[in-house]
Amino acid sequence: MFGPFKTTSPLLGGLLWKIPWRLSAPQKARQRKRLRAVDNVIACIDTALKKQGSSLKEVERWKKEMPTEEEMRPKDKYTIFDRKEKRYRKGIHKLPKWTRVSQRINPPGF
Questions:
Q1: What pairs with residue 90 in β-bridges?
Q2: Residue 11 has what pLDDT?
Q3: Which residue from 72, 108, 95 is spatially nearest to 23, judged by alpha carbons?
Q4: CA angle in degrees (0–180, nearest 5) for 91-37-59
Q5: pLDDT at 18
Q6: Are the C-beta atoms of 101 and 84 separated by less than 8 Å?
Q7: Are 34 and 98 in contact (CB under 8 A)?
Q8: What angle do the packed helices 25-52 and 57-65 form, to 10 degrees?
Q9: Are 27 and 93 a contacting pair, CB within 8 Å?
Q10: Who contacts 64 (Cβ-Cβ below 8 Å, separation ≥6)?
Q11: How many CA atoms lie within 13 A of 60 on its CB side?
């Protein structure tokens, strides 16, 4: 316990990975950039398929159901529905793999 390797309060217990309760401005900018990148990929695939004269039902379903980044409210861009939370919303950065999972739709009224 003494000397150069004495224990500190983080080593004695508590959270090892501390996640801030809200997103920083650069995190929000990167989230908007990711949303726009997905929108661009969907638009590119759609135009390429239209040039060939065909379509995919998955792409059509995505375009019908999912809002684009411009159509989304800030509340939906940066938070997700969670029934266990006090106000039914939590920061999107608390979702595991939040940079790779698309969370654009939330239950109505939340």
A1: 80
A2: 58
A3: 95
A4: 100
A5: 81
A6: no
A7: no
A8: 140
A9: yes
A10: none
A11: 6
8 Å CB contact between 76 and 104: yes
23, two tokens? 């997103």
As to burial, measured by CB atoms within 10 angstroms (0-12 exposed, 13-18 middle, 19+ buried), residue 66 is middle
| Residue 102: band (very low, low, confident or very high) from pLDDT cuts 50, 70, 90 | confident
User: Residues 42-92: pLDDT tens digits?
Assistant: 999 999 999 999 999 999 999 999 999 999 999 999 999 999 999 999 999
Q: Please say whether the beta carbons of 67 and 73 come within 8 A.
A: no
Q: What is the DSSP letter of 108?
A: T
- Burial class (CB within 10 angstroms; exposed 0-12, middle 13-18, buried 19+) of 106: middle
Summarised one tens digit per residue, pLDDT across range 1-48 is: 566 766 666 556 666 678 888 999 999 999 999 999 999 999 999 999
Which is nearest to 98 in space by CA: 42, 19, 43? 19
